[in-house]
Design brief:
By secondary structure, the chain is α+β, with helices and mostly antiparallel strands. The chain contains 10 helices and 6 strands, in the order ααααααααβαββαβββ. Strands 4-5-3-2-1-6 form a 6-stranded mixed β-sheet, with helices on one face. Helix 2 runs antiparallel to helix 3. The radius of gyration is 42 Å and the shape is rod-shaped.
């Protein structure tokens, strides 16, 4: 965001505050002018008090519009200050405050930075030219009162140097604080713009993640159902071919078609139920399976959470839906362990096979989750376990940490077969 791109707008509250500030300075200036008149700051040369009222009004009331018309306000206040001091209005304190605020406002609120710089430098140059003229007149006035001008470095010279230094600090401070206020406002505007942009990107990313997840699930749906439909077509064709010659073979083929149809419908219904569960990001493969769990273990170790993986029992060939849901449960449990377990979190993942069920257990040894209503992650894991016809337990461990255990049937309306190379137990550990 460039400087010109920032346009500061005033709020009703800010405008009200400016009015109250102008009124407060007006009252203070009236009191200051009255006290100066009574004290006789300029002796017999002091103008009538009525002129002082006109002066303080011209000096302070424009500040009520200082944020809406900052350059005009500065010019009016500077001219009023010049006239008032030139004709010796006995008020010098509130006038200095009003001029400082007017110059600060130009630096803090004018969007055109070149114009803001030119206006302020013009006023500062005019004030210093005025100071030089007054100094020259005082130095050349033979009858002038004030400090002595005798000597190489006279009291008068010291007094004039002090005047220049005070004015330099005064105008330099007004200029500097105005610039800092503008820089702070610009930084806040940039931060707000980036925050809004990040929020928009987050919403777009979330929508894209949901859409991509549904595409992945659609691919998984195809993988789950397609082979059933293909098998049904082949078996139906075979039954039609042998229907007249071999009734028993035709009957067996039709039974296979019926079984495949039931399995397809069961898996289709359970997979569609997972569509309403928002899932975490998955690997880029078209269908995730239990064979992909080691990738989750490696990812967890690479991201600073020591994680082990063990397979207990003889692995069986599980239905696609069970593999997908168990993978998702493991993924969510590891994500929660990394998110809630603290810096010392570590996890153990175990996959157990028996004759009828498969059990996934994810235990972390870090800090247990904050007690309260279960989050969407646990709800999603429960729904995935239920979609596979099983159950899920999730809660703190007695010895610390958190445990997620899913137990689902290894069959969905059909028989499961043993893998060609059974193994008793496999333990994979990385990052220890």
């Amino acid at each position: 965001m460039s400087s010109a791109a920032l346009v500061r707008t005033t709020t009703p509250a800010q405008r009200r505050n400016d009015v109250w500030l102008a009124l407060a300075l007006l009252i203070s200036a009236v009191i200051s002018a009255w006290l100066g008149t009574v004290a006789g700051f300029y002796g017999e040369n002091t103008p009538a008090f009525g002129w002082a009222l006109v002066y303080v009004a011209a000096l302070t009331l424009p500040l009520a519009l200082r944020r809406r018309f900052p350059e005009t306000t500065l010019i009016v206040v500077a001219l009023a200050f010049f006239v008032g001091v030139s004709v010796r209005i006995p008020e010098i304190y509130v006038g200095n405050v009003a001029l400082f605020i007017a110059m600060y406002t130009v630096g803090a609120w004018v969007s055109d930075r070149r114009r803001a710089t030119v206006v302020r430098l013009a006023v500062i140059a005019g004030m210093f030219v005025w100071l030089l003229v007054v100094t020259f007149q005082s130095a050349t006035d033979p009858d002038g009162d004030g400090p002595s001008r005798a000597g190489l470095f006279s009291p008068f010279a010291a007094y004039m140097i002090i005047q220049f230094l005070v004015n330099a600090a005064y105008f330099g401070g007004a200029y500097f604080f105005g610039e800092r206020a503008w820089a702070d406002a610009r930084a806040r505007a940039v931060l707000e713009e980036r925050t809004a942009e990040l929020e928009r990107e987050r919403e777009i990313t979330a929508a894209q993640a949901v859409a991509l997840d549904r595409v992945r699930i659609a691919r998984e749906l195809h993988d789950v159902v397609a082979h059933h439909v293909s098998a049904m077509g082949v078996q139906a064709g075979a039954a039609r071919t042998v229907l007249d010659d071999d009734t028993a073979a035709a009957r067996e083929a039709l039974v296979t078609v019926e079984t495949s149809a039931r399995e397809a419908l069961t898996e289709l219904r359970q997979l569609l139920e997972t569509l309403r569960t928002p899932d975490a990001d998955t690997p880029a493969a078209s269908t995730v399976r239990l064979q992909s769990i080691p990738e989750l273990i490696a990812h967890a170790n690479e991201n600073g959470m020591p994680t082990t993986f063990a397979v207990v029992g003889d692995p069986t060939e599980l239905p696609e839906l069970v593999q997908v849901n168990l993978y998702r449960i493991a993924q969510e449990a590891l994500t929660n362990a990394r998110r809630h377990g603290g810096p010392d979190a570590a996890a153990d993942v175990r996959l157990r096979f028996d004759d009828d069920h498969v059990e996934l257990e994810v235990a972390n040894r870090g800090r247990e989750q904050v007690a309260g209503r279960a989050g969407l992650g646990i709800v999603g894991m429960r729904e995935r376990a239920a979609a596979s016809g099983g159950t899920l337990e999730a809660g703190p461990r007695p010895r610390g940490g958190f445990l997620v255990r899913a137990r689902v049937p290894s069959r969905l309306g059909g028989s499961s077969t043993r893998t060609s190379s059974p193994r008793a137990a496999t333990i994979a550990e990385a990052g220890r």
